[in-house]
Amino acid sequence: MRTIELHISDDLLTQSIQYLKYFVSHHKNSDFTYRDDMGDMIQVIDGIEYVIASQEDQEAMSTPLDKDDLTSLEALKKELCIA
């Protein structure tokens, strides 16, 4: 087995990935699944991308919110010294 090192600009790589997604979902009429840059599972059905919630996501969504965990936009701006 041989290893080849390629240097591809980020923009070209992004365009290539988008094209491959489009080609597979539209030209072959197939659905597929992939992992995005953040590690989330994405399922493409008829060209529409759906994020599949992981076990960790499901646990986080089922945990009741504590009001102390929330902040207002004004409080955030004040902390960041944004007018």
Helix-strand layout with pairing:
Layout: H1 10-27, E1 32-35, E2 41-45, E3 48-52, H2 55-62, H3 73-79
What is the average per-residue confidence, as pLDDT, rounded to a whole number? 85
Q: How do the helices and strands follow one another from N- to C-terminus? A: HEEEHH
Share in helix: 25-40%
* Class from helix and strand fractions: alpha+beta
Rg calculated over all Cα atoms: 20 Å
Q: Largest sheet, if any?
A: 3 strands, antiparallel
Number of DSSP helical runs: 3
Which band does the percent of strand residues land in? 15-25%
Q: Strands of the biggest beta sheet: in what spatial order?
A: 1-2-3
Number of strands: 3
Distance between the termini: 58 Å
The dominant shape is extended
Detail the poorly predicted runs.
none
Write a concise keyword list for the protein shown above.
alpha+beta, 40% helix
Would you kindly provide a written description of the structure presented here, covering whatever features stand out?
The protein has helices at residues 10-27, 55-62, 73-79, and strands at residues 32-35, 41-45, 48-52. With 83 residues, the protein is α+β, with helices and mostly antiparallel strands. The protein has a domain at 10-63. The chain has a three-stranded antiparallel beta sheet, with helices on one face. β2 and β3 form a beta hairpin.
